[in-house]
């Protein structure tokens, strides 16, 4: 059976070799401090449908917003291009620097519908002349990207400032931390990085008596499927129908004999929901590869279209 318009696929358990990864292949995005600041001050807010002024009203928007933040060169723009534009990781090396807040509507299916705002890393949007309350009001998720291959002391400081300011404005924001560019690191080193960042961020919140703020941490890379899985978890929290979808997939599993089921947005390869059994990366990676084949118009076995 074929799929269309971002409808989902379910697939059985299978194994696949991990993709080869190596460090040092990321783009140097967000590298013009003065241009970024002046562009923001002038009201530049670039979207796929044109350029919006910073002060334009947002009250009419109903889609949740996902803010993509972090220091410059952390890989934010590369993440957006790879996940939502099907750009190959190698092509991100040639991305131009981001000098405006880029807004994009993501509406590839009935369940995947939101706005993603990509912030240049060096913009001080907490400057008194900027209305940061407008930025965080109506935001569903704040994704903060930390470069694991760099000294992340400054990144943790910016993370703490961003999270605490955002929480004061909107306590319903989901705070997601992508520990990015982990390809090339050993498994033990990845875990050490994650635990160190988690502890430091947690200690900063505890010192500010804000232990109630919950941060979710993900190890990510654009050179494997980890970035798609991480964004899947982010998007799922924005879907109010998630419990119903998971229950339907559990029923599907129990009546079909399939070992694992995913509900995919085929455009972005984000999985909107899955059944209650644990997700293992080889199965998820195989399903992503099958989607790529199916989008090309080739039929494959072991996958059923919902």
UniProtKB/TrEMBL annotation:
Comp. bias regions, Acidic residues: 16-37
Chief localization: cytoplasm
SUPFAM superfamilies, per database record: P-loop containing nucleoside triphosphate hydrolases
Subcellular location: Cytoplasm; Lysosome; Endomembrane system
Single Gene Ontology MF annotation: GTP binding
A single GO BP: cellular response to starvation
Family annotation (InterPro entries): Gtr1_RagA, P-loop_NTPase, RagC/D
Catalytic activity: GTP + H2O = GDP + phosphate + H(+)
Chain residue ranges for the region called Disordered: 1-38
Pfam families recorded: Gtr1_RagA
Keyword flag Nucleotide-binding: yes
A GO CC term assigned to this protein in UniProt: nucleus
Top-level taxon of origin: Eukaryota
CDD domains: RagC_like
Keywords on record: Cytoplasm, GTP-binding, Hydrolase, Lysosome, Membrane, Nucleotide-binding
Family, per entry: Belongs to the GTR/RAG GTP-binding protein family.
PANTHER family given in the database record: RAS-RELATED GTP BINDING RAG/GTR YEAST, RAS-RELATED GTP-BINDING PROTEIN D
Protein role: Guanine nucleotide-binding protein that plays a crucial role in the cellular response to amino acid availability through regulation of the mTORC1 signaling cascade.
Protein name: Ras-related GTP-binding protein
Annotated organism of origin: Muraenolepis orangiensis
């Amino acid at each position: 059976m074929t799929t269309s318009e971002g409808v989902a696929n379910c697939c059985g358990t299978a194994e696949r070799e991990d993709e080869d990864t190596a460090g040092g292949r990321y783009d140097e995005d967000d590298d013009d401090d003065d241009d970024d600041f002046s562009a923001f001050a002038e009201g530049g807010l670039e979207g796929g449908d044109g350029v919006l002024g910073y002060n334009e009203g947002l009250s009419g928007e109903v889609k949740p917003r996902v803010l993509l933040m972090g220091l410059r060169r952390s890989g934010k723009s590369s993440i957006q291009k790879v996940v939502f534009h099907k750009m190959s990781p190698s092509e991100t090396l040639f991305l131009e620097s981001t000098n405006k807040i880029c807004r994009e509507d993501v509406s590839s299916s009935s369940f995947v519908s939101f706005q993603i705002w990509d912030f240049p890393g060096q913009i001080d949007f907490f400057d008194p002349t900027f209305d940061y309350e407008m930025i965080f009001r109506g935001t569903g998720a704040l994704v903060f990207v930390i470069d694991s291959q760099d000294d992340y002391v400054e990144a943790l400081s910016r993370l703490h400032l961003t999270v605490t300011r955002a929480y004061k404005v909107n306590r319903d924001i989901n705070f997601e931390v992508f520990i990015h560019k982990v390809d090339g690191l050993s498994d033990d080193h990845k875990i050490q990085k994650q635990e160190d960042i988690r502890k430091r961020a947690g200690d900063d919140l505890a010192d500010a008596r804000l232990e109630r703020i919950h941060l979710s941490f993900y190890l990510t890379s654009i050179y494997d499927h980890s970035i798609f899985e991480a964004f899947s978890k982010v998007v799922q929290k924005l879907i109010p129908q998630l419990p119903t979808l998971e229950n339907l997939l559990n029923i599907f599993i129990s009546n079909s004999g399939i070992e694992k089921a995913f509900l995919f947005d085929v455009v972005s390869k984000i999985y909107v929901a899955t059944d209650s059994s644990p997700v293992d990366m080889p199965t998820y990676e195989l399903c992503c590869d099958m989607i790529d084949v199916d989008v090309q118009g080739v039929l494959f076995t072991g996958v059923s279209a919902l």
